[in-house]
Design brief:
The chain has helices at 35-41, 51-60, 81-91, 123-149, 168-171, 176-182, 189-194, 196-202, 210-213, 215-230, 242-255, 303-311, 315-325, 330-342, 348-377, 387-393, 405-408, 413-419, 426-434, and strands at 27-29, 47-48, 64-69, 96-101, 154-158, 165-166, 234-238, 271-275, 288-289, 292-293, 400-403, 438-440, 443-444, 462-467, 471-477. By secondary structure, it is α/β, with parallel strands linked by helices. The chain contains 19 helices and 15 strands. It is elongated. The longest helix is centred in the last third of the chain and has 30 residues, at 348-377.
């Protein structure tokens, strides 16, 4: 078995430290649909402030847009895809995007969408997470741009790289007096109390701390700072961020109004876009697999598990996900879903979704690795397997066990089954043999005393030991 996509043995395993491809000249892309129209048709937008004015500004000149990223975890997860792809749709049309990591606000915690207060995170953890997220965001947009280049025609408009920022840069030295004069003076307590996130916590048994209560002011100050320093005019956030986004827009307009002037005569500045809270058709929160968040970082979620997550999408969800998480046009998605409705058992739409999103996040090599792992683990296509390809495809997968020959050769198969945890014990493995439920390289084991020999190895180094239909150990010799 060989990988269909080239260069698997030359896969880069480390994330790039800096944005490289877009430091060269790169053009934006020609897209038929208008930006906001496209975002809405793809289901990426819940609400937009002053829609008509925003459309006019977008058509007039390139905008600068930002979205905040919470550093309470070290890795991006699939729930981040919605806001990150919103930014990406702006970027591929020639606008400047700013992913803002909350290195300062992460030390406090956002009360939005929470019924209890977040425990304060250690500074060292937040600093580590910021560094990891910076690399993760850079890698995401690098691969997303390669994904777009293969699917969209280019235009003469240049593309600028993401301007990744950390709000600790301007909040760490901000003193209390300056904050009160810049932000506090323009903020009305009754308006802050009326925010939905604050009201929800005030009505709870725990209430809300002053620290979390002031979070909305810090987020508003972020928008003001980005507006002043980078000309940022648009903030994107989840639906639970609506109140915080409005606070930022209000601060921009109040802080930019000269003392003694009439604000009614000044055109309002700043816009907000919220993304929907994404749930599956069954009502479950999107992005969880067996209770764990599905990460965009291979160290936390293997590429195989990432691919399988999207491959398992329900028929009721797959069409919506194809619009949201890929650059396929609406006509292309409709065509795919029409064919899917005629033969849903083939799961062609789910396969396309898994391939597209895996390439978006992990590149073409990632798709090849995931497809090979799927053939090995689910389709049991192992006869022509090559060791080096298998090692790359299953890297990080717990079914893979790389061992010295002395650890596995001439060892009873029932003992290996227990050692690699595909059976609970040697006796359980022996019972499986008697019921013809233990397999070596897809062949039932008939002798409980059978040992693994060199003649059993595929490609001279591989053995596939399986208990029943689900539990598998892939043994590879060093």
């Amino acid at each position: 078995m060989r990988l269909s996509r080239s260069g698997l043995r030359h896969i880069r395993t480390a994330a790039p430290a800096a944005w490289q491809p877009l430091r060269r000249k790169c053009r934006s892309f020609q897209l038929q649909a208008g930006l906001l129209e496209d975002l809405k048709s793809r289901g990426l937008v819940a609400d937009i402030t002053r829609l008509a004015q925003l459309e006019a500004e977008i058509h007039k000149q390139p905008q600068t847009i930002y979205v905040g990223v919470d550093p309470t975890a070290r890795s991006l997860h699939v729930g981040h895809l919605v806001p990150l792809l919103c930014l990406f749709h702006f970027q591929i049309r020639g606008h400047q995007i700013i992913p803002l990591i909350g290195g300062a606000t992460g030390l406090i915690g956002d009360p939005s969408g929470r019924s209890t207060e977040r425990p304060l995170s250690a500074r060292e953890i937040i600093e580590h997470n910021v560094a990891q997220l910076t690399a993760g965001i850079t890698t995401f947009y690098e691969r997303a741009m390669e994904y777009a280049k293969k699917r969209l025609p280019q235009s003469p408009t240049p593309i600028t790289p993401p301007n990744v920022q950390n709000n600790l840069n301007w909040l760490k030295d901000l003193n209390l007096l300056e904050f009160l004069r810049t932000v506090g003076f323009h903020s009305r307590v009754n308006t802050m109390l009326a925010r939905e996130s604050v009201q929800a916590r005030l009505s709870s048994q725990q209430g809300i701390s002053f620290t979390e209560f002031t979070y909305q002011l810090l987020q508003a100050y972020d928008f003001l700072t980005l507006h002043r320093n980078f000309g940022c005019t648009i903030q994107i956030g989840g639906s639970d961020q609506w109140g915080n986004i409005i606070a930022g827009i209000e601060l921009i307009n109040r802080a930019n109004t000269a003392p003694g002037s009439q604000p009614e005569g000044v055109a309002e500045k700043g816009f907000g876009i919220t993304t929907p809270l994404l749930t599956t058709a069954s009502g479950q929160k999107f992005g969880k697999s067996a209770g764990n968040a599905v990460s965009l970082n291979e160290e936390d979620t293997s590429i195989f598990d990432f691919y399988q997550f999207f491959l398992r999408s329900s028929d009721a969800d797959v069409g919506r996900y194809l619009k949201m998480f890929t650059l396929l046009s609406e006509d292309q998605v409709d065509s795919v879903m029409q064919k899917h409705s005629e033969s849903p058992e083939t799961r062609a739409a789910q396969r396309l979704l898994a391939e597209e999103v895996t390439e978006l996040v992990h590149g073409e090599d990632g798709v090849a690795r995931a497809q090979l792992a799927t053939r090995l683990l689910y389709e049991r296509d192992i006869v022509t397997a090559k060791t080096e390809d298998v090692l790359v495809a299953l890297r990080g997968n717990p079914v893979l066990h790389v061992r010295d020959a002395s650890e596995v050769l001439d060892i009873p198969l029932i003992k290996l089954a227990a050692t690699f945890n595909i059976t609970a014990s040697n006796s359980a493995a022996r019972q499986l043999v008697s019921s013809k439920g233990l397999y070596l390289n897809n062949t039932p084991v008939s002798d409980p005393h059978q040992k693994l020999s060199s003649t059993d190895l595929i490609d001279g180094r591989l053995a596939f030991l399986r208990a029943g239909s689900q539990k598998l150990a892939v043994i590879a010799l060093k």
